[in-house]
Amino acid sequence: MLALKSSWSPITYLTRLTHEELNPYHRALGRIILIFLSLHASFYLNFFIRKSFLAKRIRDPDVILGLLAITTFLTLGTTALAWVRQKNYFLFFLIHVTASVLILPILYFHVSHLRTYIIESVIIYLILIAQRNTS
Fold this sequence. Notes:
By secondary structure, this protein is mainly alpha-helical. It has helices spanning 2-5, 10-15, 19-50, 54-57, 61-79, 82-87, 89-110, 115-134. The mean pLDDT is 91.
């Protein structure tokens, strides 16, 4: 998602679409990802409750980080709603940028099988920052 919005994005380079033309895709993908992540969190919480594991699992680092991650994503998604963005763009932008960076270590430590994707995301993010600073 980070690479989709930047003017220096490899996706912009490959598609020749501008930031403004990619924005609807960024929003749609954000909504789809938020729906899937909400389902993921809901299904796990439902499983823990039904199996009476919640009292034990709620103290485990992977569950704590998962709840922190879904809270971060829901906050990001809520502030990205058009009426919130229009009312306070600075708040939207600040939360969007901050959450996009903070979510990476949260997900990295949430579960081990995400680590390869998180490292790839960090590398892309650092390349975009480097390109931005050299332009």
